[in-house]
Amino acid sequence: AQSVTQLGSHVSVSEGALVLLRCNYSSSVPPYLFWYVQYPNQGLQLLLKYTTGATLVKGINGFEAEFKKSETSFHLTKPSAHMSDAAEYFCAVIGTGANSKLTFGKGITLSVRP
Amino acid sequence: DSGVTQTPKHLITATGQRVTLRCSPRSGDLSVYWYQQSLDQGLQFLIQYYNGEERAKGNILERFSAQQFPDLHSELNLSSLELGDSALYFCASSARQQTGGRGYTFGSGTRLTVV
């Protein structure tokens, strides 16, 4: 079964600094990969997704992620953090099998310091 | 607004009680998924319905059940509630039974507190 691993549970950056949230997937074939964001007291919002084609995927709010098959990774980045980026970020995967369901990582809480 | 509507937003109930959570999928979506988010287990897939029929089960307890009605809304029933059932319950929807790269659209969740 497909799974994703998010390293660390909390990342803290200064406003204006680079944001890097790591995600590695486990799958025998390249799966579909997603990043969702959960703001405090809100639901899950899709940031971006990788299906096929271009390995650098751009999402909303200035976020992007690069699919690297050789490293089985799909790390999320943003060049310059804003205070409004403070939230919990989830990496998720769906395999290509008929019964595959969206499976989430443990999530990473991003804090942004003024 | 994602288009997926969940009610109620908050629910406080006592141990041993039964509650029903409701979800209306995005217009045109036939699949509904239920997830449980807790501090210790993270986001766990519970169950999927597609066009009224159960399609997949995940880590759903026997005390929990769900159904999808002809108008495609879904209800998650939780009975004999325990303190450990306190969590945020999400509903998500998608157009098809297998979404592949399309992903799911999530509602804002129902926060259940069992006291």
Description:
The complex is a heterodimer of chains A (114) and B (115). Chain A is 0% helix and 51% strand. Chain A is mainly β and 114 residues long. In chain A, the strands form three sheets. In chain A, strands 2, 5, 6, 10, 11 and 12 form a six-stranded mixed beta sheet that branches. The N and C termini of chain A lie far apart (41 Å). The mean pLDDT of chain A is 91. Chain B has 115 residues and is an all-beta fold. In chain B, the strands form two sheets. In chain B, strands 2, 4, 5, 6, 9, 10 and 11 form a seven-stranded mixed beta sheet that branches. Chain B has a four-stranded antiparallel beta sheet with strand order 1-3-8-7, with no helix packed on it. In chain B, strand 4 (31-38) and strand 5 form a beta hairpin. Chain B starts with a strand and ends with a strand. At the A-B interface, strand 5, strand 6, strand 10 and strand 11 of A face strand 5 and strand 10 of B.
